[in-house]
Design goal:
Blueprint (H helix, E strand, L loop, with lengths): L1 E9 L3 H12 L4 E4 L7 H6 L3 E2 L3 H4 L8 H10 L5 H19 L9 H10 L7 H20 L19 E2 L14 H9 L3 E3 L2 E8 L6 E8 L4 E12 L8 H7 L21 H8 L4 E2 L4 E6 L12 E3 L13 H9 L6 E5 L1 H7 L18 E4 L2 H8 L3 H17 L18 E13 L2 E2 L6 E3 L5 E7 L16 H21 L3
Bound molecules: adenosine-5'-diphosphate (ADP).
The site of adenosine-5'-diphosphate (ADP) has 27 residues, from helix 1, helix 2, strand 6 and helix 10.
């Protein structure tokens, strides 16, 4: 098969679909190649929240006054980059107003989002990319909303988000993750773009003289070879490599010891194909050693982290619940059995979640399969095989911190107390979840070579790229990244293609 279109997009996750949508809306012909029999990749499976500073929603919520201290600490850190200093100054200015006017709403701003992304990624992320990421985050949410995605009004903190700025999609499009790919599918198809399933890209086609990327070669699931030419360019959006044990082992230094027995949350499609393809044409890679684990269970419940506690088999808390994902996972691996439970009460499960897990399944269906539910705490402890007195003590102490702060583990985000039955417990263990590293890009989502020079004709976006999340990605930041840079990749391709 041989075909020529204006633009080829490789991968139909949130990044590829966003690029494809932008390209097709600009009137270019676009072809999205997807190796699997379904679209959506890891995005549609794993996605549950998207971060952005969003005054319209956040100003409806109260902020715990203690959190001002968290912000003050962040803006007093030694700046590691001139942009970091700018973000800090911006926040300090904002905060003056906030204090003068005695506001109580939940404070946030693009600058705070950027600062936390950079600081909690241990200053390894690229501040220029983070700057664009933070500036466009809310626009990305609005863009999805304009095209059919819906988000619940209440803003929470996803696991490892470290701030209440996570937007949870409703189940209206079938699942939470569907909200991050189906709106774009509609745009692509209504503009005459095409999505080819079971088409696996294997190699870039270069223009002999100019080294420009002009297309891609690959094989269909039936073994037919194809060559697709993109006259205006190619977008690489093949996702990460969390489901590829060899590649994980090759690059992973951080989790080297935990490594082998740990499973992944990703579908089998996350093999790092695009990284290998890009490497062959001398693309630069960055941050490949940074691999993220997240707390996971097949019974996963998308509840706000501020409304739960995490306990081990002794019924004791062992790490702050609102910390970074690497901190939490490291601490769990140090507990007996390498797992933990999250404890919820009826306020969270019934009022907040309406009794539904993020997969659209009633939570009661999970009871007995890694989740527990009981009208009393004593009954719950018995179900879990955890000493009741210890669990009761832990919860009493936690309820005290909700009111007065002072958690010795350093937690600062507090929502509801745990006090109203039925009570729920869900067992969680760490799993490989996200690969922070990948192909180097600039802020126009142009792929860069090992010297940092633009590779003509090639754009890249999403988990296949590196440089935004540094050593540790904030929960809820991946979706913002893939939608934002997916759109930018598409827009840049169109701009360059039109000679602008
Ligand atoms: P992102 O979040 O960056 O969009 P996802 O993992 O959600 O990444 O999506 C990446 C998509 O790319 C998946 O649907 C995956 O099946 C697809 N993909 C990965 N490798 C290839 C390949 N070689 N050819 C075509 N599609 C691919």
């Amino acid at each position: 098969i041989e075909k020529t279109v204006d633009a080829v997009v490789i991968g139909s996750g949130g990044a590829g679909m966003s690029a494809g949508a932008e390209i097709s809306e600009a009137g270019y012909s676009v072809l999205v190649l997807e190796k699997m029999p379904i679209i959506g990749g890891n995005t549609i499976v794993a996605a549950s929240a998207m971060n952005a500073a969003d005054p319209e929603r956040q100003h409806q919520q109260e902020m715990n006054p203690n959190l001002i201290e968290t912000i003050e600490k962040l803006i007093e850190l030694e700046p590691q980059h001139e942009l970091m200093e700018e973000w800090q100054k911006e926040i300090a200015e904002d905060l003056k107003e906030y204090n003068i006017n005695g506001e109580t709403y939940l404070y946030d701003s693009p600058a705070l989002h950027k600062l936390q992304t950079y600081v909690d990624g241990d200053y390894v992320g690229d501040p220029e990319l983070i700057n664009v990421f933070g500036d466009k985050a809310l626009e990305s949410i609005h863009w999805l909303e304009e095209h059919g995605a819906k988000f619940v009004d209440s803003i929470t903190s996803a696991v490892g988000a470290t701030w209440e700025r996570s937007h949870t999609p409703t189940q209206d499009l079938g699942s939470a993750g569907a909200s991050f790919v189906l709106p774009q599918q509609e745009i692509i198809e209504s503009n005459g773009g095409e999505i080819l399933l079971e088409h696996k890209a294997e190699e870039f086609i270069l223009d002999g003289d100019s080294e420009r990327v002009i297309g891609v070669k690959g094989t269909t699931s039936e073994g037919t070879l194809f060559e697709i030419y993109g006259e205006k360019g190619v977008v690489l959006a093949t996702g990460g490599f969390a489901a590829n044990p060899e590649m994980r082992e090759k690059y992973n230094t951080f989790w080297a010891e935990a490594g082998e027995s740990v499973e992944t949350t990703n579908p089998v499609s996350s093999q790092g194909d695009g990284i290998v393809m890009a490497e062959k044409i001398d693309a630069g890679l960055t941050g490949m050693e940074w691999i993220q684990m997240v707390t996971w269970s097949d019974q996963a419940i998308t509840a706000a982290i501020e409304n739960t506690i995490q306990v081990n088999q002794d019924g004791e808390r062992f790490v702050r619940e609102d910390g970074r994902r690497d901190e939490i996972c490291q601490a769990i691996l140090e507990q007996d059995g390498g797992y933990m439970y999250r404890i919820y009460d009826a306020t969270t499960i019934e009022d907040e979640l309406d009794g539904i897990s993020y997969k659209g399944v009633p939570i009661t269906e999970y009871v007995g399969k890694g989740a527990y539910m009981n009208d009393t705490l004593e009954g719950l402890a018995e179900d879990m095989g955890v000493p009741f007195e210890a669990l009761q003590k832990t919860i009493n102490e936690y309820n005290g911190y909700v009111e007065n702060g002072g958690d010795p583990l350093g937690r600062t985000l507090f929502g509801a107390k745990i006090e109203r039955g039925p009570f729920y417990a869900v067992k969680y263990a760490p799993r490989f979840h996200h690969t922070m590293g990948g192909v180097m890009i600039n802020s126009r989502a142009q792929a860069l070579d090992t010297e940092g020079e633009v590779i003509p004709g090639l754009y890249a976006a999403g988990e296949v790229t590196g440089g935004i999340h540094g050593s540790n990605r904030l929960g809820g930041n991946a979706i913002t990244d893939i939608i934002t840079f997916g759109r930018i990749a598409g827009q840049s391709l169109v701009e360059d293609g039109s000679g602008n």
